[in-house]
Automatic annotation (TrEMBL):
Belongs to the disease resistance NB-LRR family. The keyword Heme does not apply. This is Putative I2-like. Pfam families: NB-ARC. One of its GO terms (biological process) is defense response. It comes from the Eukaryota.
Length: 204
């Protein structure tokens, strides 16, 4: 896994497979890094990893993005789980009750991708939906913002968060080439592309 490195991958898998030492049912694992650092890539590889295939009874992935909306997030997670009911489409309270029922007693892995909101009260309300899960349940949060990770993680940052720094030159070039030269080989642009990638260091 060239973009993020096998050490980060192993670290994240170890955290997801381990039980919380304080006995809590739910553990939040933030992945922090600048845009293009490989946060979502790392989360996707882990989410689909063979070692976790039978470890969690339920998995869901939702991209939150900049505009925080509790109704949209709850509906999205229910759709991922396969339990969305059109009859309660616009009723946040009923949707939240339904999500709690779906998660109750299950060991789950939920990924909240690209989180920007650092409002503690809104996160606390959302987090309460997840505490019904079984021991060992995990939430991965990918974010560019340290403050978001601090808000969502109830442990010391160095114990719970995985931080991705700027990409090495070769990995930055690979990322640039994959996104900017995706439709074929362009040897005439390679020199310019490498200079751009070296300057950007993964912020593409």
């Amino acid at each position: 896994m060239s973009l993020v490195g096998t050490r980060k991958l192993k670290d994240l898998i170890d955290r997801l497979l381990s039980e919380d030492p304080s006995g809590r049912n739910l553990t939040v694992v933030p992945i922090i890094g600048m845009g293009g650092a490989g946060k979502t890539t790392l989360a996707k590889v882990v989410y689909n990893h063979e070692m976790l295939k039978d470890h969690f009874g339920l998995k869901a992935w939702y991209c939150v993005s900049e505009a925080y909306d509790a109704l949209r997030i709850t509906k999205g997670l229910l759709q991922e789980i396969g339990s969305f009911d059109l009859k309660i489409d616009g009723n946040l309270n009923q949707l939240q009750v339904k999500l709690k029922e779906c998660l109750k007693g299950k060991k789950f892995l939920i990924v909240l991708d690209d989180v920007w909101n650092e409002n503690y009260n809104e996160w606390y309300d959302l987090r309460n939906l997840f505490v019904q899960g079984d021991m060992g349940s995990k939430i991965i949060v990918t974010t560019r913002k340290q403050d978001v990770a601090k808000t969502m993680c109830d442990q010391k940052m160095d114990l719970c968060a995985i931080t991705l720094g700027p990409l090495p030159r070769d990995d930055s070039w690979a990322l640039f080439k994959r996104h900017s030269l995706a439709y074929g080989e362009h040897p005439e642009l390679e020199g310019v592309g490498k200079k751009i990638a070296a300057t950007a260091k993964g912020c593409l």
